[in-house]
Amino acid sequence: MRTALRQPTALFAVVVVTVVVVVAIAAPLIAPYAPEAKDFTAPLSGPTAAHPLGTDDLGGDLLSQLIHAARTALLVAVGSVVVAMLIGVPLGLVLGYRGGWYDRIGSRGLDIADALPGLMIGFVVIAILGQGMAVLILAIGLVFCMNFARLTRAITLTERNKGYVESARVSGLNAPRILFSQVLPNLAGPLVVQAAVFLGSAIKVEAALSFLGLGLGDEQPSWGGMLGFATQHTADHPEMALAPGIAICVTVLAFSLLGDTINDTLSGSRMRRTKILGRVLLDGDGARSGSADAALPPASAGTDDGPVGPDTGSVEDSAGEPVLAVRHADIVADRPDGGVVRLVHDASLTVRRGEILGLLGESGSGKSMLAKAILGLLPAGVRLAGGAITLNGTELTDRSPAQLAALRGTGMGVVFQNPQANLSPVHTVGRQLTDVVRAHDATISKEAARSRAADLLDLVGVDDPERRLDQYPYQFSGGMAQRVAIAVALVGEPDLLILDEATSALDVTTQAQVLDLVLDLRDRLGMAVVNITHDLGVAAETCDRVTVLLRGEVVETGDVHTVFDHPRHEYTARLIAAHPGVDDDAPGLGTHDQRKVEHA
Ligand SMILES: Nc1ncnc2c1ncn2[C@@H]1O[C@H](COP(=O)(O)OP(=O)(O)OP(=O)(O)O)[C@@H](O)[C@H]1O
């Protein structure tokens, strides 16, 4: 409202829309006559004291009809926008979320529907179903539903790759729940803007159909119908067209400007929030490691110490049952020409209960692709072309998407890099946690789910959890938001927790606190953890073993002290040398526990 009052056009829009709404609601009270009342003594009277806008050919008062027509316009507009949203939004959500063939076929369907003139769709529906309020609403709703579908699809395509959606998928929420309770609220802003603009457009279409005699019958006054009547009297009463014409133009314009105002206001607050977030993230932009981007040896090359034998994935060679075993995984991206690009080749690794495995390698080495293959979340066009992935001995690669989704919820949890993007911005933290709690236990009461959510916040070290449950992610600092994301990942008590650069966006102090939390949770819950990072300091502080990736291939794997103190592959040696602190320390990387003590 403050924004609206500062801009003249917005003020105009708000005032006009308010007046139209009030007039529509209070029509029976403020109209001097009933809309159907006739004064047979004064047909086509022209403006008089009794009839300021004149009368029609049967003596009906035009001012009263104009006032009651506002009601018709709003009813039809609101009804048709609701119909358009009910059809278009779910359609767009499904197309955008499912992608692939659904999207390709659906989008072509939208293109075809878009190519048909809107009014023609209206004519056809009215011709088939006959005239009447419900038919008019349906006809106009069908005209606009494709626009809502298109908008919703476009935004869903972007939203579905965001961290909070992936977190929700990994947390075990099913597709309808993710779509309607996670993605849809994030579309609220653009949909409200679109709805406001289409309210104006619906009034225009209703007026056009009524003008052509295809709208409502004579007993239901409408601005378009009044305009149509006025055209028959342009010679004797040209003023008759003025009032309904102005009403249509001003109302349509006002709704359009209202849409712009809402858009400006929302993008203004988004910008403000982004600035605040930006400040938080900038404050928290911790020191980054150096890069080993000098010319690199082939992945298979070793140092003078001899060839390097990457982890064969054999699980029998070490103590403890592996929670996760990846054996000879090949991940490829399909090219449009039918060829493939190899992203990860012959990668093997194992992680046991209570163990933290660091997955190291510089940007683009394939760490995230490997993690996504494990989670069954490879992006479209990228696939696992060979190898095996087992979780607690269960093969994941031949599972259906539904089986994988169920496994993801309880077997695996994931925390992504950007703490704020891990959480839906429009839901309270409590809502996000209880949604996942209830997805895992459909019988749990609301109160019990909330209490479990508070316990989880407490577990990850968020103070005053009861109060924090009612706050939104933007009210949390980066470190606290990442603790919440970890809490969400822990709801299903996963055996495997994957941290995909989960501390990279945090400042060093917060990073240390979150890493301590991970170590503590590992000790308390006995989870297996894969910690993906390009920060060797982080790996040194937290990991028991490390696996080093170079251009999609595992070049070295082993105990963290051995690998850091005596790297066998030249690339690992360069990676360590490029990392300030770790290099100097290399023999003195010290013991893992010493570093942890220093760090604490
Ligand atoms: N959607 C995609 N389609 C095709 N190739 C992709 C896609 N996403 C990433 N890649 C490619 O896969 C390779 C591995 O990327 P990945 O994201 O796994 O690297 P990373 O080691 O996790 O790097 P970073 O630390 O920057 O996230 C890169 O060459 C990247 O360009």
TrEMBL record:
UniProtKB keywords: ATP-binding, Cell membrane, Membrane, Nucleotide-binding, Transmembrane, Transmembrane helix, Transport
Residue span(s) of domain ABC transporter: 326-576
UniProt-listed PROSITE patterns: ABC_TM1, ABC_TRANSPORTER_1, ABC_TRANSPORTER_2
TM regions (residue ranges): 12-34, 73-97, 118-144
Biased composition annotated in UniProt, kind: Low complexity: 302-313
Signal peptide limits: none
Subcellular location, record wording: Cell membrane; Membrane
Domain ABC transmembrane type-1: 70-259
Membrane topology: Multi-pass membrane protein; Peripheral membrane protein
InterPro entries found in the cross-reference section: AAA+_ATPase, ABC_Ni/Peptide_Import, ABC_transporter-like_ATP-bd, ABC_transporter-like_CS, MetI-like, MetI-like_sf, OppC_N, P-loop_NTPase
Primary residence: membrane
Keyword Transmembrane recorded: yes
Residue segments, region Disordered: 289-318
Family the UniProt entry places it in: Belongs to the binding-protein-dependent transport system permease family.
Record-given protein name: Dipeptide/oligopeptide/nickel ABC transporter permease/ATP-binding protein
Organism: Myceligenerans salitolerans
Lineage: Bacteria, Bacillati, Actinomycetota, Actinomycetes, Micrococcales
